[in-house]
Design goal:
By secondary structure, the protein is mainly alpha-helical. The chain is built from 14 helices and six strands. The longest helix has 26 residues. The relative contact order is 0.07.
Length: about 350
């Protein structure tokens, strides 16, 4: 196709080595022509230019064909990406863009990405197992898209091992008391903490709670991660705090500028408040959700009862709390019997 000679068509090779084509009649304006000479898109644009009709502007695409930049651009516009939940899209976009930027791989060939490259990138993230796992997950998604669309035939992320992830610290009662002592009822800090502790929900759900979700002593939550709908009776302490909270916004939790929190912004905001209470870095927002499950287990709730509040789809994590509490009870009972026997 590239040997076709057409009147008024100029060509040049750009700095990336790609050949580009333009239409120019005499000293007139130059119009970029899409594709290659002989292709339908090229010939339609060329004929329009010959007939004196200005061709539609060629939308500038990110990266050159075959590069990671182009793959990322096409993936973000694909049905596979657009079918994801909005929050997941945001997370994937953030991780992928950070990977392309940090590793400076946008101009690299998709076909040239090898397993040893992925392992090296994982190694750089060894200090952050969670970030490494999410990088590997999104890289796998990208490579699957590349395979499905003929960019390459294999997945270089297959067989690359993840780092072992540590568990989130479950807040102890003493840590809960320390936070509450620092942030009294009436503060946004105490309101946020109480919503986390007494509903057992994730940060992404707590920041989306609104006053209209509360009806007749019950708060309704549609979990963003799972889509589960849960109805949670308000604990007396939470109900009291909500009664004392001025309703300035549809959202229950707002920033000082009376705007809603983003998940990342909320985490950073909470981290500063935790530090101000003299608590260690291990005390993070998700650990309050785990503390909520622990307290329910200590109150004698079954795994199913706890899951009805937290919304866990799998009971495996919830059952760990009930097993731990049962072990403590059995151990206390066993020592008591032994003492009485002696």
């Amino acid at each position: 196709m590239t040997n076709i000679k057409l009147k008024y068509v100029d060509r040049f090779t750009d700095r990336h080595g790609s050949v580009r084509y333009y239409f120019r009649r005499g000293r007139g304006a130059r119009f970029p022509l899409p594709g290659l000479p002989g292709s339908s898109e090229f010939m339609e644009a060329y004929q329009s230019a010959v007939d004196g009709i200005e061709p539609p502007k060629v939308k500038k695409q990110r990266g050159e064909p075959g590069t990671i930049d182009r793959l990322v651009s096409e993936y973000f516009q694909s049905p596979e990406f657009l079918r994801l939940k909005e929050a997941t899209q945001g997370q994937y976009r953030s991780v992928i863009e950070k990977w392309v930027r940090d590793e400076n791989v946008g101009h690299r060939s998709v076909a040239g990405l090898r397993r040893e490259h992925v392992k090296s990138m994982m190694g750089k993230r060894a200090g952050k197992p969670g970030a490494a796992a999410y990088f590997l997950q999104t890289a796998h998604v990208l490579m699957k898209y590349a395979i499905d669309n003929g960019w390459r035939s294999d997945d270089p992320t297959v067989g690359v091992k993840r780092f072992k992830l540590g568990e989130y610290h479950t807040w102890a009662d003493s840590e809960i008391e320390a936070f509450e002592a620092k942030w009294p009822i009436g503060s946004t800090e105490r309101l946020a903490f109480s919503l986390l502790l007494y509903t057992g929900q994730r940060r992404s759900d707590v920041i989306r709670m609104s006053w209209r979700d509360i009806d007749n002593g019950v708060i309704q939550v549609t979990q963003q991660k799972t889509g589960n709908k849960v109805w949670i009776p308000l604990h007396a302490n939470l109900a009291d705090i909500l009664d004392r909270t001025e309703k300035k916004h549809l959202a229950i939790l707002t920033t000082v500028k009376e705007k809603t929190f983003s998940p990342g912004g909320f985490s950073m905001w909470m981290a500063k408040r935790v530090a101000a209470a003299g608590l260690p870095e291990k005390c993070v927002s998700h650990g309050i959700r785990k503390a909520a499950a622990r307290r329910l287990a200590e109150a004698g709730c079954s795994a199913h009862e706890i899951a009805s509040i937290t919304g866990h789809k799998s009971l495996s994590e919830v059952e760990r709390y009930t097993r731990a509490v049962d072990q403590k009870r059995l151990a206390v009972a066993a020592v008591k019997r032994l003492t009485e026997h002696e």
